[in-house]
Amino acid sequence: MVSLARQTLVHEWKRFAAAILTLAFSGLLILVQVGLLLGQLDAFTLPVTRARADLWVTAANIRSWDQSTIVPARSEGLFWSHPAIRDVREMAIGYADWKTGNGTRQSVMVVGVPLQPGALAGFQGVPAETLAILSHPDSVVVDAADMDKLGAEVGGTAEIAGKRVTVGGIVHGFRSNLMPLVFASPASLRQIAMDGGTGGPPYFLLKLDPRFDVATVRDQLEAADTADSYAIATPDELTWMSARFWLEESGAGTSFGFSMLLALLVGVGVTGQTLRGAVIASLKEYATLRALGVRVGQLRAIVLEQSLWVALAGNVAMFAIAAALCGVAWFLDIPLVMSLWLCAVTSLFVTAIACVSGLLSLSVLYRSEPADLLR
Amino acid sequence: MLVSSDTPALAAHGLFKSYSSGDSRMDILKGIDLTARCGELTLLMGPSGSGKSTLMAVLAGLSRPDRGRVDILGQPTGCLGDDELTAIRLRHCGFIFQSPNLFGALDALDQVRLVLQMTGTPAAEIEARARRALTEVGLADRAHLKPAALSGGEKQRVAIARALVKRPTLLFADEPTSALDRYNGDMVTLILRRIAHLHRAAVLCVTHDSRLIAHADRVVTIEDGRILSDERTGCAPSPDRVSDNAAP
């Protein structure tokens, strides 16, 4: 089987290299940007996604998980009264000043990790030994990637809001983009925040009996709250709501949309011109085929096949470069998330750019008039 | 298509064709009658601007006449749409142009295979037919070479193989030897003659090259859009000799 499109691509690789690289970088712009965005979002919602709760109870009418203030303490009884509830825990976070002896000052988010044994104890990714460290009074742990920023060392001391704490250990994969996270026991956090416990905690974490449907239980608990004093969401819902708020507030969504448009325009522009140039360079050959009885539709198929080959080569180049960038990001501890769906969508995007470019270049095919060869 | 043995491969009657440019109008063909029979190599000769290339385009269905009629194997082409004309060319016509117009990416064998592939030839036949066509033009041992590695004459012979592999009843050649040296020109001429005589094709060849006259069955001279003379050369045997056209 002769594939004119593929053989031309190999033979004239220099002509197509610009289009292939442009496609690859158009895709990379999307892939890396969304990857970083997902990494940032993941970093932004770390406590939500890593806690073991099936449902999060927060203050009512919040737009982002970190805005929760008080959930009335009396609500806890209501939660326990539901037959699906297996465990209920308070959880709190606090913002404070971190200071070390070497002069480092930094705003931090102190996260109270539920330590009491049970289904809601600890966070995913925090080993039992670390939880044991937190059970020591005034011990905290921080992410390894934040150590330099905090001027901290394991075994060293620091002051949080004027209270002396000991850095008892480190965790990995908890580097937030908001500010460094400092993990403490609920008791330590209360001491740091000088919270008398009046009113109620900012969050309740709920663990359900797996036989119950999470969404139904959420609806029932929400309906039970006639005073509209709290909101309940699954971790996914809370993450998505926070992500949307962050995208809107930070302008990252707009900037991402603009980049995507730019990638589309540059991709279509360069790829379209390259494919058009390739068609124009072979106009006489195409005209000869038409004279021999080949239909224009068959020639169109060749041009579109060529755009698909260019898309394939562009995708290969894109994923090769993306893999290298992932390695660099991992090495530098930059949160970059490459999910399967992101790769699939970006690959489709690149293929679509190539196909649109191919369609745009079809118009020149009609210039391949066989009669012109006889003039 | 079943046609009587008396049916000419090509018959044109009263062809007129003109081109307009702004307010000016140029008459290119001024009432041409021409018939071509299978088994003959016919040369269309004449000075530049005489209308011979336009005539060939009209005869081959690549361009439509303003007036007049063209029948290919007895079928009138005037009432056919573009797709039907393309189908007629697919079934019956081969073309050789002044320039070989080969795809730079394909070797000689693939140039020929591509045509068969795109014209719906059964896959099992393609390889053998393509090799046979290349053998016929003396390029069996050059089948693996791309155009960049072939000489001008060899490229033109690949173009001929590409045209004849479809086994056309009508072969149109436009100045096929004008860019070739004497040796290659002679070789191409002999191939065209062989296609006419062995394959029983009607070969119409537009040329300025007087070397071809010695190998032709018939020479039609055109001047100013009219047939000036139509002569049998008597140098090449042709079983289907008939007197067709006379100069007006």
From TrEMBL, chain A:
Span of domain ABC3 transporter permease C-terminal: 258-370
Record protein name field: FtsX-like permease family protein
Pfam families: FtsX, MacB_PCD
PANTHER family in alphabetical order: ABC TRANSPORTER, MEMBRANE PROTEIN (PTHR43738), HEMIN TRANSPORT SYSTEM PERMEASE PROTEIN HRTB-RELATED (PTHR43738:SF1)
First-listed, main subcellular location of the protein, grouped into a coarse class: membrane
The species this protein was found in: Azospirillum lipoferum
Subcellular location(s) per record: Cell membrane
Keyword line: Cell membrane, Membrane, Transmembrane, Transmembrane helix, Transport
Entry keyword Isomerase: no
GO CC terms in record: plasma membrane
Keyword match Transmembrane: yes
Record-annotated MacB-like periplasmic core domain positions: 17-223
Transmembrane spans: 16-38, 308-332, 338-366
Membrane topology designation: Multi-pass membrane protein
From TrEMBL, chain B:
CDD domains listed in its UniProt record: ABC_MJ0796_LolCDE_FtsE
Sequence ranges assigned to domain ABC transporter in this UniProt record: 10-245
Keyword annotations of the record: ATP-binding, Nucleotide-binding, Transport
Domain of life, source organism: Bacteria
Record flagged with keyword Cell wall biogenesis/degradation: no
GO cellular component: plasma membrane
Entries under InterPro entries matching the protein: AAA+_ATPase, ABC_transporter-like_ATP-bd, ABC_transporter-like_CS, ABC_transpr_LolD-like, MacB-like_ATP-bd, P-loop_NTPase
SMART domains reported in the protein's UniProt record: AAA
TM regions (residue ranges): none
GO MF terms held by the record: ATP binding; ATP hydrolysis activity; transmembrane transporter activity
PANTHER family per UniProt: ABC TRANSPORTER, IMPORT ATP-BINDING PROTEIN
The protein, known as: ABC transporter ATP-binding protein
Species whose genome carries this gene: Azospirillum lipoferum
